[in-house]
Specification:
The chain is α/β, with parallel strands linked by helices and 324 residues long. The protein is built from 14 helices and twelve strands. The chain folds into two domains: 186 residues, Rossmann fold, CATH 3.40.50; 98 residues.
Length: 324
């Protein structure tokens, strides 16, 4: 019997319909958001992630923690299966999950005699049974080089500064063919010289083009991504931060912050007619610094970004800018 590990529930359902007799284990964590610090055990990190996801309002703490702990127990049973097959996509969301899973298997006590990997640039949740069946031909044994690289990259992502993650671009990443663009895209989620992440900049650019409602902005920003990785709940959290800042960059967002189960407030939120503030336009035009005017307090992997620990990334020159 196979254990199939994949990114989330949509992909899991596609695989479940096609791969009969397998146990499907969705990973379900949004690792490009919130704290992902170095910990001694998977259980410690899972507790940190459950706390973060619950604070975002994405479910009760008990529900989220129970689901993630059940996932961890499923992973711990990997040795009881004949084969373990990892199915992951090319985007940043999946590549971070893949690093975490491969890092777990890289540890000697967790090695599996039949560990295989399917990597694809197709979004698995959108595939029909024939397409999933065709992708099964991509199954390949995970190599020692892949395990070693994943362990190194996962440790780099969880470091206290983004320097080890940036240093990955100086190495041969070809054994995990979608890792290099994921490294670059994650670096772009650091504040730039204007204080905006790439995603925040894309929101303001879409607003400037005349797109005004949150759902339409989400679709417009998705279209700018070569490998879409951000779901709508994450996007609305990003929009909240721009609208609720001490010096707002976006105005007109009703019912913020976003909460998925808010009923009338959710409807009000989704039908908001947004506009850019004068400050937002000044930042977008490169004449002001969002981070200089507004509090920065968020996690980027294992790096806690604050006013005193403000790492930036200049995408044009692909260089990190350390805190002053």
């Amino acid at each position: 019997m196979d254990l199939v590990i994949t990114n989330g529930d949509a992909a899991g359902e596609s695989l479940r319909r096609t791969i009969t007799g397998a146990e499907i284990l969705p990973w379900r964590d949004v690792l490009h958001e919130g704290p992902v610090p170095l910990t001694q055990t998977l259980e410690e990190l899972t507790a940190i992630r459950a706390d973060y996801l619950a604070r975002r309002g994405w479910g009760s703490h008990e529900e989220i923690a129970t689901n993630l702990q059940a996932r961890d127990r499923g992973l711990a049973r990997a040795g009881t299966f004949d084969r373990v097959v990892l199915w992951f996509e090319h985007d940043l969301y999946d590549q971070l999950q893949l690093l975490q899973v491969l890092d777990w298997f890289a540890r000697e006590e967790n090695r599996h005699r039949a560990l295989l990997l399917v990597q694809t640039s197709e979004f698995l949740g959108r595939q029909n049974e024939d397409e999933i069946e065709a992708l099964r031909a991509l199954e390949a044994a995970v190599t020692p080089a892949q395990l070693e690289l994943a362990a190194k990259a996962w440790s780099a992502y969880r470091a206290k500064t983004p320097e080890p993650w940036r240093a990955l671009l100086q190495e041969d990443l070809s054994s995990l063919p979608f890792l290099e663009p994921a490294v670059r895209r994650m670096l772009e989620e650091l504040p730039g010289p204007d204080g905006l992440s790439r995603s925040e900049r894309q929101v303001l650019a879409a607003l400037a083009s005349g797109i005004t409602t949150p759902p339409a902005l989400f679709v417009a920003v998705q279209r700018t991504e070569p490998a879409v990785f951000m779901a709508d709940w994450s996007f609305f959290g990003l929009l909240d931060a721009l609208a609720l800042a001490r010096v707002p960059l976006v105005a007109g967002l009703d019912g913020a912050p976003f909460r998925p189960a808010n009923g009338p407030l959710l409807s009000s939120y989704l039908h908001s007619e947004l506009r850019m503030t004068a400050f937002g336009r000044s930042v977008l035009e490169g004449n002001a610094d969002h981070a200089a005017e507004n509090k920065i307090d968020r996690w980027w992997g294992g790096t806690h970004l604050t006013r005193s620990n403000l790492w930036r990334f200049d995408a044009e020159w692909e260089r990190l800018i350390p805190p002053p």
